[in-house]
Amino acid sequence: MTWVPDGFAPPAPPAAAEFALAPLGPEHTAADHAAWSSSIAHVRATPGFDPEQWDGDPWPVPMSLAENRSDLVRHRAEFDRGEAFAYTVLDPATGDVIGCVYVEPDPSGAAEARARSWVRADRAALDGPLHAAVDAWLRSEWPLRSVRWPGRVAPGPGAEAEVRPAGAAQPRPRRLGGGAQLVAFVGSRDLAAADAFYAGVLGLERTEATAFANVYDAGGTALRVTRVDAVAAAPYTVLGWSVPDIAAAVADLASAGVVFTRYGGLEQDEAGIWAAPSGARVAWFADPDGNTLSVTEHPGEQRVREAPH
């Protein structure tokens, strides 16, 4: 290959407070599959993942774990041969796969290399910082004169993520974390039907009602169900609750008429509960407007609930 020298070994990748990179390989099969398959619509909407921006590549498309492993074996072989470099993006605290970065020769000739990256839908806020950090790394530490990110505008001055040595402390700005109260929003075409569901079925207390919105107390967080003419229901979770016993929560909701959603490619039990590689257990359902909601039991919750007092 002429885009990088023969025998090229990539420099150590950047690490930030909320992400770290490692070469992608078959050891990441299950976690990688869970990450992208839970966020297909989000990944497809990410710059660089329009098939027209990447040689007609339609990925992500549903595939089995075995097919995903073969794909990761191919990525690792290309990495070892210096043909292309794929990195998994990890949560430094948990080791969960939260995204990927791909770097390869630019076949258009417009640049020496082209790159693209994605993050899970629930980590969407990291998309810009990850792109900026990787772009700065490629331009400053790789032997490349030019890098193209299909579908993206090059980061401007000051856009780079703050990169730190692994393990180094990093101050976090307060901004909206210093006492500002979160308000959650969801749209509805029919506030009466929404109230029958959020108050009558889910049991949330309505604290305000107008012609424009119903407001509910969702465990201390204000949930504003806003009247809209048309709901563009997202293909991912918009509201979720953490529960100590998901089996009990699912059974209770089902007894109230809630129907839990099943997804092809996910191994859900008879109640509709999926066990994530992280140990979390999740079940999804929809409100009357088709908004996707979920309940999750996180690792450790079951042990805490069953511990004697």
Name the poorly predicted regions.
156-170, 303-309
Sheet of most strands: 6 strands, mixed
Give helix % range. Answer: 10-25%
User: CATH homologous superfamily of the largest domain?
Assistant: Gcn5-related N-acetyltransferase (GNAT)
The value of Rg in angstroms is: 22 Å
The overall strand count is 14
Q: What does this entry look like structurally?
A:
The protein folds into two domains: 15-148, 3-Layer(aba) Sandwich (Aminopeptidase); 183-306, Roll (2,3-Dihydroxybiphenyl 1,2-Dioxygenase, domain 1). The protein has helices at 29-37, 40-44, 65-81, 127-141, 191-201, 246-255, 301-306, and strands spanning 15-16, 19-23, 85-90, 97-105, 113-119, 147-148, 183-188, 205-209, 213-218, 221-227, 237-242, 274-275, 281-286, 292-297. It is 24% helix and 24% strand. A hairpin with a 7-residue loop joins strand 4 and strand 5 (113-119). The longest helix is centred in the N-terminal third of the chain and has 17 residues, at 65-81. It is built from seven helices and 14 strands. The termini are far apart. The strands form three sheets. A six-stranded mixed beta sheet has the order 1-2-3-4-5-6, sandwiched between helices. A four-stranded mixed beta sheet has the order 7-10-9-8, with helices on one face. With 309 residues, the chain is of the alpha+beta class.
Keywords for this entry:
about 300 residues, alpha+beta, Aminopeptidase, 2,3-Dihydroxybiphenyl 1,2-Dioxygenase, domain 1, 4-stranded mixed beta sheet, 14 strands, about 25% helix, elongated, disordered C terminus
